[in-house]
Amino acid sequence: MNQKPGARNQELYIGLLRLHVLHHAAEEPIFGLGMMQELGRHGYRLGPGTMYPLLHSMERRGWLRSEKHLVNGHSRRVYVATAAGCRALVQARKQVRELFEEMCR
Fold first, then answer.
1. Interacting residues of 83 by C-beta distance below 8 A, sequence separation 6+
2. Residue among 27, 47, 22 nearest 37 (CA)
3. pLDDT digits (tens, 9 = 90+) for 59-105
4. What pLDDT does residue 81 have?
5. In 1-105, which ranges are E strands?
6. Rg of the Cα trace of the chain?
7. Which of 29, 68, 82, 87 is placed for a possible disulfide with 78 were both Cys, Cβ 3.0 to 4.6 Å?
């Protein structure tokens, strides 16, 4: 992440980034560079050294599944949410909503 005001608190936000990635992977296939760009639109600047380990860890946990696709002659790893990932996302949305409501009282 870059050194924006919240960059020092990256550890605090990493769970939210995982949820954001999982949200998109549940809607459609994603890939690392595309997610770095998506998160960049929300003010987060993640480099490959952060994004790809995050995707790999989510795959190891069973939340994402990946396949290699050939795109313009290059191999690209594409990720989709698994059934377990979708269930985890549903539960996480409930917990985030509850936490958000408590914090905004």
1. none
2. 47
3. 999 999 999 999 889 899 999 999 999 999 999 999 999 999 999 98
4. 98
5. 64-71, 74-81
6. 14
7. 29
